[in-house]
Amino acid sequence: MIHFGIVFEIPDWSVWLVVYVVMVLAFGAWALFRVLNVLQRVRSARLRRLASRRRFDAIPTSGPMDDPSGVAKKRAQESIERQFTVNRRVLVPMVVLGTVVMLGLPFLGSVPAAFVTLIAASTTVFLGVATRPIVENAIAGLVISSSRLINIGDTVKVDDIYGTIEDISTTHTTIKVWDWRRYVVPNTRMLQTSFLNYSISDRYLWASVDFFVAPGTDVQRAQALAIEAAEQSRYFAAHEPPECWVMELRPETVRLRVAAWANTPSDAWMLTDEVRRVLTQRLRAEGIETHATTHRFAEGAPASSWAARVPTVPSDNPGPVDDPDRPRPEGPGSVGGPGPAAPVPDRPPAPRSVSAL
């Protein structure tokens, strides 16, 4: 009787070790290629997005430089190149180090356990205590760089700070405020804090202006004047006609809101300014009584009401008014009102008599 059998030869440990080393090296090479490829694609996408920017300021301004937009674009390009150079210098060694650690795992049994424990504890203490802020901000910078949360040139609002992203480094993000100050935010805070990004998907804004009229006013006429003021602004984007709504009815006032499209956040800022100025003149020309006004942008405006920030003047000193019989606005900075009134001057102290000694 003939027996047919298959004999399997189990390779020795050295053959398995060679196979493991080859697989680890192949994985390390693939990971390194993948990291470099992703960095290059993200870098190219950011440079293309930067090239399409027309404005780099939250408010249109010429500034003290000859070509502020050109200077801002050049700085942004240098920032992107520097950012991805740093990222490459950080990620490539990390991939190489990870590959080396994986190659050394088969030989871990020959290393004394005390030595391994000492190295692990020292590394944990060093990364967890001494360099924790740096490591956290560096990791957050990598996340921001590889994601689309913010890009250089985006218009944002962080902690009531309204401006544009000027630089994203490994550890922090620099915001150019509308008045040309620089607001520096750690990258970890940019990931942990909620903020408004007016340019994350597009730069269009539905800008609006709130204004108040007297209860007896012809509301339809006031709405028509507000819509005309928005339509005739040079910053108005004619994607659709402006709208004007009655937002609130009170015994002492009627609140209306006019809204219109703008192509960029900076155009929205200037659009609201023109609407307020033109609307003030036309309401006065029509004899429409007005009250305090506020203005804002959609999604939580960078601008806020003057009435909420400027204290009202005491009633014993109303300040200059156009007509003594006309009711005064409820707050400074109103449409048709006198604007912020002058502060009440300090009265000199009454003379005190000095008796002769």
Give an overview in words.
The chain has 357 residues and is α+β, with helices and mostly antiparallel strands. Helices cover 43% and strands 16% of the residues. The protein has a 5-stranded antiparallel beta sheet. Helix 1 packs antiparallel against helix 2 and helix 6 (219-231) crosses helix 7. The protein is elongated, with a radius of gyration of 33 Å. Mean pLDDT is 75; it is low at 299-357.
What is the strand arrangement across the widest sheet? 4-3-2-1-5
The number of helices is 8
Mean pLDDT across all amino acids: 75
Structural class based on helices, strands and sheet pairing: alpha+beta
Beta content comes to: 15-25%
Radius of gyration: 33 Å
Secondary-structure element order, N to C: HHHHEEEEHEEHEEHEH
Number of strands: 9
Largest sheet: 5 strands, antiparallel
Percent of residues in helices = 40-55%
Based on CA inertia axes, which overall geometry fits? elongated
N→C terminal distance? 146 Å
User: Which residues sit in consecutive blocks of at least 5 with pLDDT less than 50?
Assistant: 299-357
Keywords:
single chain; 357 residues; alpha+beta; 5-stranded antiparallel beta sheet; 4-stranded antiparallel beta sheet; 8 helices; 43% helix; elongated; disordered C terminus
Topology:
Elements (H helix, E strand, L loop, with lengths): L12 H39 L16 H37 L8 H18 L1 H15 L8 E4 L2 E8 L3 E6 L4 E5 H6 L3 E2 L7 E9 L5 H13 L11 E7 L4 E9 L2 H21 L4 E8 L8 H4 L48
Antiparallel strand pairs: 1-2, 1-5, 2-3, 3-4, 6-8, 6-9, 7-8
